[in-house]
Design goal:
The chain has about 120 residues and is an all-alpha fold. About 70% of the residues lie in helices and about 0% in strands. It has four helices and no strands. The relative contact order is 0.07.
Length: about 120
Amino acid sequence: MIAQYGHVLLFVIFSAGFAVANLLILSPLLRFKSNDTVQKTAYECGFEPIGTPYVPMDINFYIFALLFVVFDVESLFLYPWAVIFRSLGWNGFISMLVFIGVLLFGLIYAWREGALQWEK
């Protein structure tokens, strides 16, 4: 059994080495290099760029997206549980009630903090 963990560790080491080699060695060799200022400007349909390309994004969009992912995953866990509901018995029912309760607590917290509002 230790040998199986050794294989996993070896796989992790090789994959991390491959990623580091690509980022540090191959990337500088293969990237496009140009000192032309025209090629470094942002292209906006043939017009001169207006303002800076770095626009601050509102964090509410990211929070809303993360909440969507959390409750989407919750619905994915509910379907297989509903399929085998009768074979799980009371233990499975109570564990799912705890799971839904924790997520409901998180939803109420996010709602009170204003994470579900688009504008504050």
